[in-house]
């Protein structure tokens, strides 16, 4: 069924915070480490050869001498700092395959953040993901290698907007996508991700819900449930660029091509898809189906990560990059571990309220 209506978005955008100048509180407490050598030599080549094996299908050999010294230094510093690196599926192959301890979609990263047995968490993803890790681990040091790694969905709505919606629709439960700021999460009843949105909406037993801030995800959820949905006009700047026409063009020129899409895409794009799911569900689908040729209608680094694992599958790649995800690089991850920056902090009252909404989602069996 279609959504009931879509409101907003707010002109007052909640951009990620500006980096603090000077040393982080964590660096003052735990100290800065010496910058390791970044020389490329025989011994670095030998020690990192097994890691290059993982990405040789997608990273040319001439690029490895640039990446390898960073990979070696980061993996050593992780041990020294007792740090863990959580990386989203959109991270580039050398990060995803060579330095990450845990990879996944937003739900998997949030779940793993609750289990992290480390003093320091480095979030290789965007700011809302790092905030979620901090909300779930108030006593740990949580770092993001570039604090300007934002998200157009998180910027589309503010906590004031949610309060106004609650006043307009009294008693209606508010479900917020995790792609939101901590302040917005704190105003909501429960969070969801693209992996569990339908189950979360149905778990509340309500006839009508407010679902924020992704209009297209709301439309996808509405197509899968009888619950009536009030939505918000937030969009992902990467997925909104795909069109149904573009996909029909691919299909006409290659009738055997499989099309799988992320539910942040507009409805005319999802109408062309053979499968729709979160980034992790898209990867699982390719692993299970092993199609001859596939187009993953989502951020394009992900196809490279799956291609590294499954070189026999041919990926057709319309390349829409997320500029925020691409702010995270090996040199910035190294700086994060050496200088303990950029430290993510959340106001304790906001964090306590947001934790309630995130934990309610994490504890659902879906
Ligand atoms: P997933 O939870 O599916 O990984 O999506 C996160 C995201 O930002 C997609 O653009
Ligand atoms: Fe946000 Fe879209 Fe980038 Fe995902 S791909 S982080 S939703 S801007």
Using only C-alpha atoms, the radius of gyration works out to 21 Å
Please trace the helix and strand order, writing H or E for each element: EHHHEHEHEHEHEHEHEHEHEHEHEHEHH
- Strand pairing plus helix content: what structural class? alpha/beta
Strand numbers in spatial order across the main sheet: 1-9-8-6-7
Q: So, CATH architecture of the largest domain?
A: 3-Layer(aba) Sandwich
Please, how many helices?
Answer: 16
CATH homology-level superfamily of the largest domain: NadA-like
Overall pLDDT:
95
Find the count of extended strands (DSSP E, 2+ residues): 13
User: What is the CATH class name of the largest domain?
Assistant: Alpha Beta
Tally of separate domains = 3
Helix fraction bin: 40-55%
Spatial gap, N to C terminus = 23 Å
Quote the CATH topology of the largest domain: Rossmann fold
- Overall, the morphology is globular
Question: Can you offer a commentary on this structure?
Answer:
The protein has helices at residues 25-30, 42-55, 64-81, 93-98, 106-115, 127-136, 159-168, 182-186, 197-203, 215-222, 244-253, 267-270, 279-289, 301-309, 330-339, 348-362; strands spanning 5-7, 83-88, 102-104, 120-124, 141-143, 174-177, 190-192, 208-212, 228-232, 258-261, 275-276, 293-297, 314-316. It has three domains: 5-12 and 153-238 and 347-362, NadA-like (Rossmann fold, 3-Layer(aba) Sandwich), CATH 3.40.50; 25-151 and 326-339, 3-Layer(aba) Sandwich (Rossmann fold); 239-321, NadA-like (Rossmann fold). The two termini are 23 Å apart. It is an alpha/beta fold and 366 residues long. The chain is 42% helix and 14% strand. The strands form three sheets. A five-stranded parallel β-sheet has the order 1-9-8-6-7, with helices on both faces. A four-stranded parallel β-sheet has the order 3-2-4-5, with helices on both faces. A four-stranded parallel β-sheet has the order 11-10-12-13, covered by helices on one side. The protein has 16 helices and 13 strands. The model has no long low-confidence stretch (mean pLDDT 95). The structure holds 1,3-dihydroxyacetonephosphate (13P) and iron/sulfur cluster. The site of iron/sulfur cluster has 13 residues, from loops.
């Amino acid at each position: 069924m279609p959504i009931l209506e879509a409101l907003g978005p707010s002109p007052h955008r909640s951009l990620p915070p500006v980096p603090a100048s000077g040393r982080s509180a964590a660096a003052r407490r735990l100290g800065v480490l010496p910058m390791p050598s970044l020389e490329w030599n025989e011994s670095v080549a030998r020690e990192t050869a097994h890691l290059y094996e993982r990405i040789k299908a997608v990273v040319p050999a001439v690029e490895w001498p640039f990446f390898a010294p960073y990979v070696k230094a980061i993996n050593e510093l992780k041990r020294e700092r007792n740090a863990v690196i959580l990386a989203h599926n959109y991270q580039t192959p050398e990060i995803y395959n060579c330095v990450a301890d845990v990879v996944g979609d937003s739900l998997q990263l949030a779940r793993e953040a609750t289990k992290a047995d480390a003093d320091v968490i480095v979030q290789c993803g965007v700011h809302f993901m790092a905030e979620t890790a901090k909300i779930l681990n108030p006593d740990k040091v949580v770092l993001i290698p570039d604090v300007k790694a934002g998200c157009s969905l998180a910027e589309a709505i503010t906590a004031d907007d949610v309060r106004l919606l609650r006043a307009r629709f009294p008693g209606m439960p508010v479900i917020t996508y995790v792609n939101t700021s901590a302040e917005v999460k704190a105003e909501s009843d429960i969070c969801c991700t693209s992996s569990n949105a339908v189950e979360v909406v149905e778990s509340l037993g309500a006839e009508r819900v407010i679902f924020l801030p992704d209009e297209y995800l709301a439309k996808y959820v509405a197509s899968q449930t009888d619950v009536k949905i009030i939505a918000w006009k937030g969009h992902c700047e990467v997925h909104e660029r795909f069109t149904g026409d573009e996909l029909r063009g691919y299909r006409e020129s290659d009738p055997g091509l499989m099309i799988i899409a992320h539910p942040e895409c507009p409805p005319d794009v999802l109408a062309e898809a053979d499968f729709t799911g979160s980034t992790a569900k898209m990867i699982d689908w390719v692993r299970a189906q092993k199609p001859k040729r596939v187009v993953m209608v989502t951020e394009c680094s992900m196809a490279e990560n799956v291609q590294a694992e499954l070189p026999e599958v041919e990926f057709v790649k319309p390349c829409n990059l997320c500029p925020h995800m691409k702010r995270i690089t090996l040199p910035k991850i190294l700086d994060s571990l050496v200088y303990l920056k950029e430290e993510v902090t959340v106001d304790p009252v906001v964090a306590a309220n947001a934790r309630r909404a995130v934990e309610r989602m994490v504890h659902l069996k879906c």
